[in-house]
Amino acid sequence: MPEITITEKDYCDKAYACWLGKCIGGTLGRPLEGKRGPHRLTFYRPVPHRAAENDDVDIQLVWLHALRERGVDLTSRDLASEWLEHVIYWFDEYRFATSNLRKGLRPPISGWFNNWFKDAMRSSIRAEIWAMISPGSPETAVAYAYQDSIVDHCDEGVHGEVFLAAIGSAAFVMSDTKKLLKIGLSAIPEDCRVSLAVRDVIAWHRKKVSGDEARRMLLEKHGSHNFSDAPQNIGIITLAWLYGEKDFEKGILAAVNCGLDTGCTAGSLGSILGIIHGRDGIPPKWKAPIKGKIAPGRGIVGFEPPRDIEVLTEQTLEIARAVIEKRGTGVSIPSTKPKGRRRALPATYGDGLSPTTVPDEEKFAVEHHLGAATLKIRFHDCPSISYDKPLEIEFIVANSSEKGIEGHIDLMVPWGWQVEPESGFDFSIRKRGKPSSTTLALRVDEADVRLLPTNPLSARVTIKAQHPVNVDFNLLGERRWLIAGPYGKKGGRAFNRAYLPEKALAEEKPRGKVDFKKASFPEFLMDVNPFFGQKKEGVIYAFSWFYSSRKRDLRLFASCNDGIKVWLNDRLILAKHNHLPIRPPRYRADIQVQRGWNRLLLKIARCGNPVDLHLYFGDRKNHVYNDLIDTYFPPEVLSFTG
Predict the structure, then answer these.
(1) How does DSSP assign 65-128, residue by residue?
(2) In whole angstroms, what is the distance from residue 493 CA to residue 487 CA?
(3) Residue 575: which H helix or E strand, with range?
(4) How far, in Å, CA of 213 to CA of 215, rounded?
(5) Residue 499: its H or E element
(6) How far apart are CA 147 and CA 21, in angstroms?
(7) pLDDT over 90 (residue 148)
(8) What is the DSSP letter of 47?
(9) 96 Cβ contact partners less than 8 Å away, ≥ 6 residues apart
(10) 557 neighbors 616 (Cβ within 8 angstroms)
(11) Percentage of the chain lying above the pLDDT 70 cut
(12) What does the pLDDT read at residue 3?
C-alpha cells in the first residue's frame, strides 16, 4: 500500500511550475551570468519575448528523451551514450567530459579525469528532472542524480546535484524550508564544501545577519574565482531562498542580485519554489514573457524535443508513473482525488538519507557485469600511460551468483608493451566469498613503442562453464614534451629576453648547449613547476611535436596565471603575461597546422608563485580536438635527445 499520495492534478501543477520556474529564473539570470555583482534587478532586463535558450533545460530534455527511449533503469553508461549522441555543447565541463567520452573513458572516470570544471554547477542545474520523475522519493531522485552527475563531474559537482535533487523530490509533498534543506544536507557528506556553504548560510540567517552581509561572508569564506563553482552557487541558492522569505519573485531576484552563475542559481531556485507553490505561486508578470514555451538550444541534436510546457509536463508525468511502478517508491499518483482524509507523511519521512559521493578509490574504477561475475578495473592514478614510469591496474572480480566461480584473466595489450605478470591471473571465489583482486604492471619502452593518444586494451575473462568474454577499455597516451631551463633570475625580465632555445627557432638543431629533460603530462593542466627547480623566478621552454594527418584549421586554447608565449612552426601565435587565476580557456589563437609533423614551443614565466598552465587544441567550434598525435617524438628528435 503506497504511503504517500500525490493527485495527478497536484503533480501536474507542481511539475508545470517547476519547468516554468526554471525557464523564468534562467531567462532572468542569463544576461548577468558570470558577473560577480551585487546587482539591483527588479524585473527582466531586457524584457524577453520568449524563454532564453538554456543548457540547464536542454540536457534535461535529452534525459527525458533517454527515459522515454531506454526505460527508467538508466545508468551512467546509458546517459553517457545519450550524451555522445545528442549533446554538442562546447563550454567548460561539457567539452572536457565529451572529450573523455569520445576517447572511450566511461563514468565516473569521464567526470573527473582532465576536467578542470569537475566541481562546477552544470550537473547541479539538471537536478529537476530526477526530482520530477521521483516525486516524494528523495532516495530515488538521489540515485538518478548520482548516475547523471558522474558523467561530467566529480566531488562538489556531484554533491550539488544530489543536494538539489533530494530537495526537489521532497518538495512535492512538503513545503517547510528548514526540513527540505535538512533532507538535502542529509544526502551529501557533512564535510564537503557544498554542505559547509549551505550550513553557514543557514546559521547566518538564524542569527539575523543581513542578506548583503551574508552574501559577503559567503563569498569570502566559500567563494571561488571560477564563477560556476558549485559550493558558492549552491550557497547563493540557499541564501536567496531563506532571505527571499519563500516568495517566488523575491527569491529569484535575490539569487540573480547575488551575482556569479546567475542563470543557474535563479533557475534552480525558481524550479524549487515552483514545485512548492505551484502555478498560482508564480506572479502573472513573470509568466507572461515565457508564454508557456520551452526554447531548446543549438547544443542538443538528433531528436525533436517538446517546446510546450504542458506537453513537457504530460511526458514527465508518464515517466514518473513508470518510475513509481518499476522502483516501488511508495508513492502513488491517482487520476482522481482519493476518498477519505489525506494521509499524513510518515513520521520518519526524509530521515536517514545516506550521503552520496564518489569514494576516492571508486573515482578510478569502471565496473563490467559478466553474467556470474563482476569485473572492476581500477587505475591506481590516471587512465593514462607514459614512457617515464610503469602503470598499475587492479582487476577485481566479484561473484554475483549463488554458486562458486573460478576462472582466469589475460590482459591483451598492443605490440611491444610489457605486462607483469605476463601470464595473467587465476581467480576462485566461493558463494558470497570475498572478491579476488590482482594488480598488473604495464611498461612501455620509448625505443620500441609509439604510444598513441588512445590505446585499446582488452581483458579476456574465462569463467568455468561460460564462454570467454573480452572486456575492452582504453588507456590514454600522455603528451610528450622536452623541457629546457630554467633561465634568468627575474620572471618578468626573463620573459622579455630571448634565451638559446628561443634564438634557435629557425634552426634544425639549436647551437650551443641545451640540456633537455623529457616530460609527459596526462592532462591539459601541465605541472611545470618541478622544472624550475629551486628557482622561484625565471623562465622555462617546453617543446612538443604533434602529427596531423592533413592540413587543417584549428584553435589553440591556453590559460596561464603568469607569462606564456607560444610558437607554432617557429611563428609566434600567442604572448600574454598577467597574474590572474586561470579559468580555462583564457586565451585563444586561431592556427593552421600542416600535414605531417608540427612543432610547438612554449615559453613559460614564473614570477614567484607556482605556475598554473592549461593548454589544448580545439576545432573552430570550440570542441576539444582529439585527432593529433603528440604522444611520441619524431625519429630525428628522439635521436638527438637520447
Answers:
(1) HHHHHH-S---HHHHHHHHHHHB---STHHHHHHHHHHTT--TTHHHHTT-TTTTBSTTGGGHH
(2) 11
(3) strand 571-577
(4) 5
(5) none
(6) 24
(7) yes
(8) P
(9) 114, 115, 116, 117, 152, 524, 624
(10) yes
(11) 97
(12) 83
